[in-house]
Amino acid sequence: MPTWQNFEPFIVSGLALGGVYALSGVGLIVLYRATGVLYLAFGAVGALGALIAWSLATVSTPGWLTWLACIAAAAAVTLGYGLLFGPALARRDPLVKAVATIGLTLILYGVMDLLWTTSGGQARSLTLPTDNYTFTIGQIQVTWTQVIALGAGVVLTVGTAAFLHYTKIGTAMRAMANDRDITATLGVPVRKVEAAAWLGCGVLSGIAGLLLADLVALDATTLTFLVISSLAAVLVARLRSIPVTFAAAIVVGLVHDLLTPIVALSNYRDMTPFVIAAIGLLVLSRHQVIATSREEA
Question: By residue range, what is the domain housing residue 58?
Answer without folding.
Answer: 7-117+137-227
